C-alpha cells in the first residue's frame, strides 16, 4: 500500500474516532450517498472541461468517499478498504480473461461481447445466491441511477435478449410516434396542471429518445449534459447581447428574444 493511501486511511479513522469530527461521526451510508453522486458528477465535469488540476482534486474527493464507506463498514465488522480493493481486483481479473488468461487475442467488439456475457453470468449467479426464483435480464440496473441513464441501460439489457429494433430509423419512428401521443394528450388536457396521461406520455417520449441514442451509439446522459451547456452558453450570450444594446432581456417579447438567440448562434 502506498504511503499516501495509508495516510488517507489513518486520517479517515481519526475523523470517525470518538473524539473526531462531529460531522463525519454523524454520517451513515444513506446520508453519504448523495455526496458520492455529487462528487462523481464533479469528476465528469472536470473531464469534460479538460481541467487536469481540478480533475486531480475531484478524484481525491471521490476516493475519500470510498474510504469513508470502507471505514464505516469496518466499524460494523462488515469489510474494510483492503477487501474493497481485493473485490475489484478479482472482478477485473474475472472479466478480462483475454488479458489475464489464455483465451486468445480479441478485438474491441469481441471483448465487449465477452464482457457483457460475463456480467450476465454474474447476475444470474447473484440471483441464485439471493434465492430469486424469477431472474430477469434487467437484474442489476440500480433504481438510483439518473432516469435518463437508467433508461439507456434498461433498453440495452432488453436488446441483449433480442427485444430491440433492427435499425436506428425504427427507433426514430418510435420517437415520432411517442411525440404524436404527447400532442394528442396535450390537446385533451387544455388545463395548466398536467394530467397523469401527459406525464406518462412524456415519460414514454423520453424513454424512446434514450433508446434512439443507444441505437446510434450515443451516450444519452453525456449528450444531454452537452446540450445543457450549449443552452446555458447561448442564453448567457443573449443576456449579454441585450445588455450591450441597452435592453433588459426579461422585458423583451419572445420575438425579440428569438432574434437575440439567432444572433448568438450565428456568432458561434
Describe this structure in words.
The protein is 74% helix and 0% strand. α9 (168-187) packs antiparallel against α10 (196-215). The mean pLDDT is 88. The chain folds into three domains: 3-95, MazG-like (Helix Hairpins), CATH 1.10.287.1080; 136-218, Helix Hairpins, CATH 1.10.287.1080; 222-267. It is mainly α and 268 residues long. It has helices at 3-15, 22-26, 29-49, 52-75, 81-95, 97-100, 108-129, 147-160, 168-187, 196-215, 220-244, 254-267.
What share of the residues does DSSP label as strand, in percent?
under 5%
Multimeric state: single chain
What is the β-strand count?
Answer: 0
CATH superfamily of the largest domain: MazG-like
The unreliable regions are none
Q: How can the largest sheet be summarized?
A: none
Structural class: mainly alpha
Rg computed from alpha carbons, rounded to a whole number of angstroms = 24 Å
pLDDT average, as an integer? 88
State the CATH architecture of the largest domain.
Answer: Orthogonal Bundle
Amino acid at each position: 500500500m502506498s504511503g499516501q493511501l495509508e495516510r488517507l486511511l489513518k486520517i479517515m479513522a481519526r475523523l470517525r474516532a470518538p473524539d473526531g469530527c462531529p460531522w463525519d461521526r454523524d454520517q451513515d451510508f444513506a446520508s453519504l450517498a448523495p455526496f458520492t453522486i455529487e462528487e462523481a458528477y464533479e469528476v465528469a465535469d472536470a473531464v469534460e472541461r479538460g481541467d487536469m488540476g481540478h480533475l486531480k482534486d475531484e478524484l481525491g474527493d471521490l476516493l475519500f468517499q470510498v474510504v469513508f464507506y470502507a471505514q464505516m463498514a469496518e466499524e460494523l465488522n462488515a469489510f474494510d478498504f483492503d477487501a474493497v480493493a481485493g473485490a475489484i481486483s478479482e472482478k477485473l481479473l474475472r472479466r478480462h480473461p483475454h488479458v489475464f488468461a489464455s483465451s486468445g487475442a480479441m478485438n474491441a467488439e469481441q471483448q465487449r461481447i465477452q464482457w457483457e456475457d460475463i456480467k450476465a453470468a454474474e447476475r444470474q449467479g447473484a440471483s441464485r445466491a439471493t434465492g430469486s426464483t424469477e431472474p430477469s435480464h434487467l437484474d442489476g440496473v440500480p433504481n438510483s441511477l439518473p432516469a435518463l441513464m437508467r433508461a439507456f441501460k434498461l433498453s440495452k439489457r432488453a436488446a441483449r435478449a433480442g427485444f430491440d429494433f433492427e435499425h436506428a430509423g425504427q427507433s426514430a419512428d418510435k420517437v415520432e410516434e411517442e411525440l404524436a401521443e404527447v400532442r394528442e394528450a396535450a390537446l385533451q388536457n387544455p388545463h395548466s396542471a398536467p394530467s397523469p396521461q401527459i406525464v406518462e406520455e412524456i415519460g414514454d417520449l423520453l424513454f424512446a429518445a434514450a433508446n434512439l441514442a443507444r441505437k446510434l451509439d450515443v451516450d444519452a446522459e453525456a449528450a444531454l449534459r452537452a446540450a445543457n451547456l450549449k443552452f446555458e452558453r447561448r442564453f448567457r450570450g443573449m443576456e449579454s447581447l441585450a445588455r450591450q444594446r441597452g435592453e433588459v432581456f426579461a422585458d423583451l417579447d419572445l420575438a425579440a428574444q428569438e432574434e437575440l438567440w439567432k444572433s448568438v448562434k450565428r456568432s458561434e
